[in-house]
Amino acid sequence: HSMFKSISHLRQGCLILADRCVDGISANRERLEAGVRNSIGIVTALNPFIGYANATEIATEAHLTGKGVAELVEARGLMTAEALADVLRPEVLTQPRLLAAAV
User: Fold this and answer.
1) Would you state the torsion angle of the CA atoms of residues 13, 18, 19, 24, taken in this order, to the nearest 10 degrees?
2) Largest CA distance in the chain
3) Which parts of the chain have pLDDT scores under 70?
């Protein structure tokens, strides 16, 4: 009896959460893309291309100055804008086999 009561409470909670918090949500693509572009974490995807030492320097400078990783990599001439765009595509970042093929 207690288990079925708990399941009923859990179901009701899920329905209320969906109704009051989830339904109608839409992504703000521009803000999400800006967040990814300005994330220091993307420097890890560049390690195979620019090396660990350069990646560390870029991450540190990006943190201290607020500049984007891609902007700093380009400014130092470590990669071209086209190469950066190719490596930092979401499909490549989320599927390691594509990154391995790009290297």
Assistant:
1) 170
2) 68
3) 96-103
